[in-house]
Amino acid sequence: MATDVPLEFESLLAWRRDASTGRSLWYFLELNKGESHEGRPIEGWPLLLLEHPVRGRYVVAARDLGVGELVCAEEPFVHTVHDDLQSTVCHHCFSLLPSEASAQVETCRACNQVRYCSATCARDGAAVHAAECDVLHAIAKSGNPALQKGVRGLRLFVRLVHRAAADPRAFADVEALVEHYTDAPPERRRMLEGIATQVNKIVPPHVRMPLDRLAKAVSRVHTNSHAIADMAGLQYGSGLYAKVGSYFNHSCAPSAVSSFRGRTWRLHTIRPVRRGDEVTIAYTELYASRDERQASLSAQKGFKCACARCVAPPARDLVLDGWRCTTPGCEGVLGAAQTSCTRCHTAHALPPAARASIEQRWVASIDEGAAGLHGGRGGASVVSSGSATSAVASTAAVRAKEVIACEAAMRAAEKVLSQSEAKLHPHHALRNKARRLKVYALPPDKTPADLVRALEDCLPGLRAHLPHGHPETAFFEHWLAHALCDDAASYPAGSSARERLRQQACHAANAALEGLTISYGADHPFVHTWRASDAERDRALAMAHERCGASI
After folding, report:
1. Residue 243 near residue 74 (C-beta atoms within 8 A)
2. Is 30 helix (H, G, I), strand (E, B) or coil?
3. DSSP state for residue 167 in the 8-state scheme
4. What CATH number does the domain located at 13-74+241-269 have?
5. Is the pTM of this model over 0.85?
6. Dihedral through CA 384, CA 388, CA 393, CA 395, nearest 10?
7. Per-residue confidence band for 148, with pLDDT thresholds at 50, 70 and 90
8. Where are the chain's structural domains?
């Protein structure tokens, strides 16, 4: 595994036109030193930004890259915490707040809407928050929940126009990004213009922008922003990374994965990349069928994916929306649009439209259960502390509302899994969603063995259909290691069951640490926490083994 070399890009791009080909080339600059080697890429630096008349700008490897290399890192041009985590996450560094009553938590006294994990973050975040403080204070004072919710949704754009007015030179990086306002259909243009109009209404006159310019900026944010998320996919907020983070193209089989250290966006390779090959990331859920990925990308990013996985799907992807053949004894699978089995060629008892209608009902059940579970817990994260043990323990004192939400989500997951068992392939993306929902919905009175079984149901699909080193797989492996340890503790010391579970826990912990080190880097605090947690577990198990030997 390659050693991490942090790269913070301040002055990022130099422009040169290649006289022989007529193409424009952007080269990375040496930090705070301007151009080097007359515009040629600096030896040893990992990336080049190129431009193609059809493909636009894209990033390639300037040298061979190994697995787990940190190839770039960037601070956001603007960022904001999501609405339902306003009281849970620090508004500057995105770390979890201990509690609102903690003396460590700093709250803005003017608007009482923004919280920080420390006095340092409060000081460092003050300038960014100043742009929105008066607006948030006025809306909170009005007592109008609908108005408050609407303004919160505009906070990223309010910060954007203030930053643009304060630092127009930096805003040029934003205006160099791709936008889909100019070529958008009329209804989307009206939507973008509506957002721009609302923003201009609530910001001071001296920072307002012409409507079309601001509508384009809103489009650029929609197209290029990153969800600031943890390893399990829980989104804390959004950030616009305009210098380098927005120049990586999407692929459904990416060569690199995004991660966050606080609000800092980082990119690590998850497979070898040869010199000259494009470095790609994923904009959407990878454990999903091609149709689902395409629909998500079209709705959220405004483009149709033409990556190799979408153009020529590998055979293993057939199961992601695959239905079982209805012929007794046949193990064949039918894709969403197929009418007959790929193995025995027998027509399925249900046409594609009927199967799609059934799936839509199952999806609605899962979405309803997930929404209730999230809302019942007040938007609090159960997965982001870096320790699955603390995540599970945090549900021990759930309130009645949370218990009801867990029970409803569990019923939804079990209903979908039961009804689809004989119909869908085991690795169907919808069944995996139901399995993941079941894990998060497990009530606190369930035994460690119940959690082990739920996690073990999820992991085969994740391992098969997510890239090696994907953080979500690592998260579930880590959670499984702790659940196995808890289950082992329920057996007598020295028993074969206890030793078997201990060995399984060690295997899961090692797999989790390997995966997270690839995607997050050896220097990430979560990796340090997991390594320390594993070491503590090993010491405890060794001591228990010694006590058992002494007693014998």
Report:
1. yes
2. strand
3. -
4. 2.170.270
5. no
6. 50
7. low
8. 13-74+241-269, 78-228, 318-446, 447-552
